[in-house]
Design a protein that fits this description.
The protein has a two-stranded antiparallel sheet with strand order 1-2. The chain is an all-alpha fold and 396 residues long. It has a domain of 187 residues. The longest helix is centred in the middle third of the chain and has 46 residues.
Length: 396
């Protein structure tokens, strides 16, 4: 039967369980006792309590350090014994510094579990994306989002691996030489420091409470737990590397699928209505436009150096009719007007006579002109009649 996690940690911290020896475990029926190594024992505890194995090791180490600090604060005998060991091995070392936690930034397995779950989600996503691309329904934006998730997962995994590498050198307790000295110091060494002669009953209770029989075992557990922590740390780093390699492979597959999906056309109007969310696509489009402009400019330069191409006349059926320039209409020619000489007024009597004569002449001219106009009309009518009848009529 396995105890609860809290009881197990307490048994290790008070020396009831030695982690460098086999641990007895009674069967469920109670008729057999098995001897289990400490790592396998912790595996069973992690399975039962659903707690990572590294967390169990860290709980044991923390309980050992806190237990020693409490003993030092409550027992002057224990404090003097620790200080004596420090002076024998390393001078200038304070006793409380031995039991301080050296891990500055502990690794949290919950973060790693989160990234591992994300990796499983990415595995299911890539299979769905592959089916869509094979059926011709691939979405570039969806693939870009998938690749971004892969990048974020890789960054988080790198950070977790960095924390593990940093912790690997911090699991060993402070001043391990002093710890070894205390692990080899028998319990009787502390008894000589106790005031047994003055207060025998007080000394006995004090020893049983703060200096138990398994005191050396507790120091051994504090030394050896760092060894198991380093082994588990190395295992987790290897697991994270494999996980990161798998995510990188998924990202490469996403890039391959992204390159096989046709890029949608984006003219100026489409850019205004639905601007691209990817800066890389905009840069690629600008580079393509610049390349086309450079090609066109180079082609125009070649044409300008060679000169215009020779003009070939089109085939006869395609030749346009000869083009005649439009004639400019000449303005109607008006004869220049002759200026009439100024008339001299005759004397009044003569003027009246001449006026009478002029009136008679004008009347005659008007009659002659009117008669001639009528004769012309009649002659034209007669001429028309003559043509119809086959004869010609003269005007005179």
């Amino acid at each position: 039967m396995y105890p609860r996690l809290k009881d197990f940690v307490e048994n290790v911290s008070n020396g009831s369980i030695a982690i460098n020896r086999l641990i007895p475990v009674q069967s469920s029926m109670g008729d057999q006792i098995f001897q289990v190594p400490f790592p396998q024992y912790c595996d069973k505890m992690a399975e039962m309590e659903r707690v990572p194995k590294l967390t169990i090791y860290r709980l044991v180490q923390d309980a050992i350090n806190k237990g020693f600090l409490q003993r030092m604060n409550r027992s002057d005998v224990f404090q003097k014994g620790v200080e004596g060991a420090c002076n024998r091995v390393e001078s200038g070392v304070s006793a409380p510094s031995l039991f301080e936690d050296t891990v500055q930034r502990p690794f949290l397995t919950s973060y790693y579990d989160t990234e591992r779950d994300k990796m499983n989600e990415l595995l299911s996503m890539i299979s769905e994306i592959e089916r869509e691309v094979e059926s011709g329904k691939g979405d570039r934006e969806e693939i870009e989002g998938f690749m971004e998730n892969c990048s974020v997962c890789n960054r988080n995994l790198d950070k977790q691996e960095e924390i593990l590498e940093e912790n690997a050198s911090q699991y060993l307790p402070n001043h391990p030489k002093v710890w070894r000295e205390l692990a080899l110091t028998p319990r009787s060494h502390y008894r000589t420091e106790a005031p047994s002669s003055d207060y025998p009953r007080y000394a006995q209770k004090h020893m049983e409470r703060y200096l138990p029989q398994g005191l050396q075992t507790i120091f051994d557990n504090g030394l050896y737990i760092s060894h198991f922590l380093e082994i588990e740390n190395h295992r987790l780093r290897e697991e994270i590397r494999k996980c990161r390699e798998q995510v990188e492979a998924l990202q490469q597959k996403g890039e391959y699928l992204h390159s096989n999906v046709q890029k949608p056309s984006r003219n100026f109007l489409m850019r205004m209505l639905a601007p691209s969310s990817s800066e890389e696509e905009e840069e690629e489009e600008e580079e393509e436009e610049d390349g086309e402009i450079d090609k066109l400019a180079g082609h125009l330069q070649k044409i300008s150096k060679k000169g215009p191409p020779p003009h070939e006349p089109p085939p006869p059926h395609e030749q346009p009719p000869p083009h005649e320039p439009p004639r400019e209409e000449e303005p109607p020619h008006e004869p220049p007007r002759e200026e009439e000489p100024p008339r001299e007024e005759p004397p009044r009597e003569e003027y009246e006579e001449e006026d009478d004569e002029d009136e008679d002449e004008e009347d005659g001219e008007g009659q002659l002109g009117g008669m001639f106009y009528l004769d012309m009309k009649n002659d034209k009518k007669d001429n028309k009649k003559g043509k119809k009848e086959g004869r010609q009529v003269s005007f005179f």
